[in-house]
Amino acid sequence: MKNFRFWRGIMGALLAFSIYTLLVVPLVHGITTPNTITLTPSEYAARADVSPSTVTGNDTDTEKYITVKLLGLIPIKKILVDILPFDTILVGGMPIGICGEIDGVLVTHDTADGTLQKGDLIQTVDGLTVKSCADFTNAIANKSAVEITLIRNGTTLKRHFILDEELGLRDTTNGVGMLTFINPENNQFSALGHQMTDFETGTAVNLRGGAVHTVSTYGIIKTQGKQTGVLQSSVQANATPQGSITQGNYFGITGCLTPDSTILDTATTTMPVATRYYVHPGKATLRTSLDGTTVEEFDCEILKTRYQERRRNKSMVIRITDPRLLDATGGIIHGMSGSPIIQDGHLVGALTHALTHDPAKGYALYIDFIAH
User: Fold this and answer.
1) Global pTM?
2) Most exposed residue of 86, 171, 253, 344, measured as fewest CB within 10 angstroms of its CB?
3) Domain boundaries 109-167, corresponding CATH code
4) For residue 39, which of 29, 27, 47 has the smallest C-alpha distance?
5) For the chain, domain boundaries
6) Tens of pLDDT, residues 178-213
7) Residue 41: in which H helix or E strand, if any?
8) CB 290 within 8 A of CB 335
């Protein structure tokens, strides 16, 4: 009798475990899956645990879905799929010069009364949107005072300003970043992986246009203590532009290279892309250039991946493990932002920030956040 109760208990536990693993876990997983996910065309076609489908409303309204099924039979959720425009890309790792047109007007020095401060980004004048210095000039024409909306240290402010002194304003900025990838179908590129920072004021700015140029790299200042090092480079702005900038936002710079761009001559490695759902902690490589011409892959490790349903920064935490890179730079340095991260033979992300307390560590962004 005791043996019967013992085995009945064992069988009951096994049955409960089976129900939990076969029904409860998949059901919860399906229900908590986001309503929209991003996949490459190959990832969409290869989903073995779901059922791909296409719903067409009209010739210009076609949506892709995957249907999550319990036990492969019972539909429990339909997920809209945002499909990337490519499966493979030309992987980057080379520096490019960024000559950007700022989306807004940047104040370059404090006004006498302190109403405007160096680094303020003017957005509107008397309710009119200003995207350039020309817009600002037109908005203040024949006026003695105006209401200005500006962004200061990430905070939106309104200021009443009397036009009784000369203003220092600028609507362009320059910088250097690493090119992340090029779409071989149309030469469209992504670079940098984070918002552009103006070199003079330190203000983070969006870009509404601009041009990309070649870069001259002439040295490395290694990281010392909490002082992050620098890849010393200059933009060859007097040379022929290599392409145009479409926009610059929180997730980097996008644009299109010209068909005769010399940057295309150095981007010869084709690589498949993997979205955030396939990235995992473990070994990886960082592809970058330390001399401006030679692109190399250095060993690194993805320490942590973050579940992010929507586009956000700091997707991954990585650590440089390659002694060659650590000896040359002391860790992750300024100028390396946008360097591609490769895992399992796929481009999965781009380096974005260094951790000041541990220069061998830094943050990276998922590639599907950059590609949109």
Assistant:
1) 0.85
2) 344
3) 2.30.42.10
4) 47
5) 2-83, 87-100+175-372, 109-167
6) 999 999 999 999 999 999 999 899 999 999 999 999
7) helix 41-45
8) no
